[in-house]
């Protein structure tokens, strides 16, 4: 079966960015930026994004383009005879499925809140009642299941149309609309009365806050965010490398994707901080920011129903772009391993993902007594922990070692693939860094993630 290809370079960049751009850009990045010193933290974060995330993204793209298959077979094709790098394909596939086991539920929440905000369901509610709306949602497994299945069916339906006619065509429109709507919302937020204080808090480098929080904690937070924001290590990015030609170098393409991901995260802060300061609200992190804090702000804002509707449309696009990108990876697993058609893979995985997403939903209600990571932690937290704190760093370490070691694909093969075409070349002087120092940094992030989880 002939490998599908993207119809345009823009499509490749937007879809790859869509995979990287997730809800963490919105509900985590602004919060930790404010917590660790505003612009001072952003500068540290950008530094680590370049030296941590960028090289691993180039490696994932290179493995994908050289192998012309998904992570289900890419190591099999490129590894030296007699080696066992291909064993990691099970980890990569597990990572994609685990991610979708909770991300589809959150996508369903976004869709429901978009509909409710557009219908004016939050108008006239006070702060406690808005908080109660989210609590009522998580207490209804049937409603959450319906929303999840709609999102799963919609996104798989897009993927079923093929790479160019489905995934590329729809994701390009969604990503361009997402960027446009976020800019409009940022302008509106910045023009609110009292927004200036929020802009100062977010954009003015306050190095005293870095000192207060502790330099080590700030550096680790910046490293962690830079590492996890691009969803590296489970082959979710590598698949798009298998769909592009050799006209452009992969370092240049990775730079474009990284810049786009960073811009979305920064603009999210420009939406959230001015609005929170304008209405005297603490910018929380996590679901409470999106589903409780911001609906309260929209309720207090002139034309809030319109702005709230646009915001949740943005959030749905951010979630759906990631879901579509990862679904494309999951569909490719079955196609590469069994040679089945795209339609058959879609149908099987639609049923599988719908069933696998149920534990996350039930963890909020019927299975709420199951708290695997301690008090207050549910199934979603467990699934997120397995992906974010385990498979992403372990997978990134494997891609690093595979592309740089003599017993793997090797530095020569990696750089030859990465530097084929026009554009920015992967620097030769970086070999010592990515071969010996970067793996130790990734290992440190992995160990520190466990330490932070269990020593709070």
TrEMBL record:
Transmembrane segments: 38-58, 94-115, 142-163, 175-195, 215-243, 255-281, 306-327, 347-370, 390-411, 432-451
Any coiled-coil regions, as ranges: none
Name of the protein in its database record: Transporter
Domain of life of the organism encoding this protein: Bacteria
Source organism of this protein record: Faecalicatena faecalis
InterPro entries, sorted: Na/ntran_symport, YocR/YhdH-like
Family to which the UniProt record says this protein belongs: Belongs to the sodium:neurotransmitter symporter (SNF) (TC 2.A.22) family.
Keywords assigned: Membrane, Symport, Transmembrane, Transmembrane helix, Transport
Lineage, broadest ranks: Bacteria, Bacillati, Bacillota, Clostridia, Lachnospirales
């Amino acid at each position: 079966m002939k490998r599908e290809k993207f119809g345009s370079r823009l499509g490749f960049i937007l879809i790859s960015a869509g995979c990287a751009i997730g809800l963490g850009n919105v509900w985590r990045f602004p919060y930790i930026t404010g917590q660790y010193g505003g612009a001072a933290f952003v500068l540290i974060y950008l530094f680590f994004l370049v030296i941590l995330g960028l090289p691993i993204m180039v490696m994932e793209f290179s493995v994908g383009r050289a192998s012309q298959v998904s992570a289900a077979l890419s190591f099999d094709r490129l590894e030296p005879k007699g080696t066992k790098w291909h064993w990691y394909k099970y980890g990569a596939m597990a990572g994609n499925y685990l991610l979708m086991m909770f991300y589809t539920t959150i996508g369903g929440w976004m869709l429901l809140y978009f509909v409710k905000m557009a219908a004016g369901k939050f108008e006239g509610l006070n702060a406690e009642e808005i908080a109660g709306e989210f609590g009522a949602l998580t207490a209804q497994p049937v409603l959450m299941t319906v929303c999840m299945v709609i999102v799963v069916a919609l996104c798989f339906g897009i993927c079923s149309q093929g790479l160019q006619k489905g995934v590329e065509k729809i994701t390009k429109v969604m990503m361009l609309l997402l960027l446009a709507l976020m800019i409009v919302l940022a302008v509106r937020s910045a023009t609110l009365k009292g927004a200036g204080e929020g802009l100062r808090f977010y954009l003015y480098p306050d190095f005293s806050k870095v000192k207060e929080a502790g330099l080590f904690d700030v550096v680790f937070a910046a490293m962690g965010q830079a590492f996890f924001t691009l969803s590296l290590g489970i082959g979710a990015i590598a698949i798009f490398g298998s769909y592009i030609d050799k006209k452009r170098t992969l370092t240049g393409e990775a730079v474009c994707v990284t810049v786009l991901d960073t811009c979305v995260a920064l603009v999210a802060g420009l939406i959230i901080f001015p609005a929170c300061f304008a209405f005297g609200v603490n910018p929380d992190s996590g679901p409470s920011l999106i589903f409780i804090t911001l609906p309260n702000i929209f309720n207090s804002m002139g034309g809030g129903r319109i702005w709230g509707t646009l915001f949740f449309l943005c959030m749905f696009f951010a979630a759906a772009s990631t879901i579509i990108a990862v679904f494309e990876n999951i569909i490719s697993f079955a196609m590469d391993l069994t040679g089945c058609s795209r339609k058959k893979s879609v149908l099987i995985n639609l049923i599988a993902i719908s069933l696998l997403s149920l534990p996350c939903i039930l963890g909020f209600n019927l299975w709420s007594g199951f708290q695997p990571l301690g008090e207050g932690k549910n199934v979603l937290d467990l699934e997120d922990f397995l992906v974010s704190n385990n498979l992403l760093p372990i997978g990134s370490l494997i891609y690093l070692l595979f592309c740089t070691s003599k017993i793997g694909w090797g530095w020569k093969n990696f750089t030859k693939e990465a530097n084929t075409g026009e554009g920015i070349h992967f620097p030769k002087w970086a070999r010592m860094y990515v071969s010996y120092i970067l793996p130790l940094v990734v290992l440190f992030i992995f160990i520190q993630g466990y330490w932070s989880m269990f020593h709070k």
